[in-house]
Amino acid sequence: xxxxxxxxxxVAIGVYAYEKEKEPIEKRGSAGEEFVTTEEPKPEPPPAKRxxxxxxxxxxxxxxxxxxxxxxRPPYRQxxxxxxxxxxxxxxxxxxGRVYVAQQKGLFFALDAQTGKVEWRKSLNRCAASSPxxxxxxxxxxxMHPVECxxxxxxxxxxxxxxxxxxxxERWRFKTAPIESSPLLKNGRLYVGSWDHNVYAIxxxxxxxxxxxxADDQVNTSAAYWKGRIFIASDGGTLYALSARTGRLLWSAQxxxxxxSREFWYATPTVAYGRVYLGNTDGTMYVFGAKSGKLLWAxxxxxxxxxxxxxxxxxxxxxxxxGKFYALDAATGDTIWQTDxxxxxxxxxxxIDGLVYYSVCSSCGSAAARAVARGPxxxxxxxxxxxxxxxxxxxxxxANPVVADEERIYITGQAQEYALxxxGSAAARxxxxxxxxxxxxxxx
Length: 444
Description:
mainly beta
């Protein structure tokens, strides 16, 4: 009898420990701890004269806050679209009157922003899973190994390339293992992670390595910048804060360990209010102090988080694979509102003039072990204040769906890129006049 009781007790303890191990970490934050209210996330307004690089990089700025400085609102008129002939996994960047688009299977397009016509293009037969970054007269793009780009393929190589923004002429190429990072450009340096577990700082003019840092696993996220630091995360579940100048490790933090392993970071860090906001594929949103690396709050939100967060007016906007879209209090992590996303959210949202744009992926998570919502590839705009849907577009998928310039927004679909302008705007009126002219000429 005694032995049976001991055995039953051991089983009960084991079950309890197992269930506790499965529980996601949860911690409520405070506005009184490492919350810098003077650092309100607002992108610098466009310069008085026309901005030559109106959307220069992934997330718009070096902090990757995903906030547009351009005030566009629906309803929109479609101006043009192009077929990229394969998947567009990340959004374009905009500069020098062009939209620069990296297609997943090696095509790269420099499109006239007004007409959508191809000004120059590249065909590299290499996979790309990142956005281009635009410097002064230069476009930088990361590449992986040759198509079919098998995951974790032994001996795979990749590179970061610099092209002349006007002509596409190659200036230099930095060769390494496959790179999935969208390059971060800051103070004449480019920062990327690689499959070889390294984070690299590269001279933007010459392509020469300045320093490298060895991480614990592949580094496939992009870097964000704040006050001399870069923040970048690995497949090993570790977030690193590094000196942008030297590459010295300032601190590291990790996602929750369950049964001896951690799930990986896919999203790019977002820096705001002196904090680093980062969702993990374990479905939890983690927030760390940018100076200390201390975990300030953690919120389990869904089955998986793949997209980066947008932070705007003390709210954190993020979606999950099981079809939820949230606005969270940036200080505490409390839910301000939650809405049905109508499908799996894979990419980061973009905030434009008080509206939050996000896309839904119809096929994401098809082999997932946990729940995934299903809905058609689409783009939605919801009000930042209450989550009410105000606009819907028939395409979207992997990328954070919307970037912008002074006149237009650009939507990334599964394999199409679109340009739209607010109805009644100068760009929309000009397009309507051109359309009427084409019809008259066609009748002649």
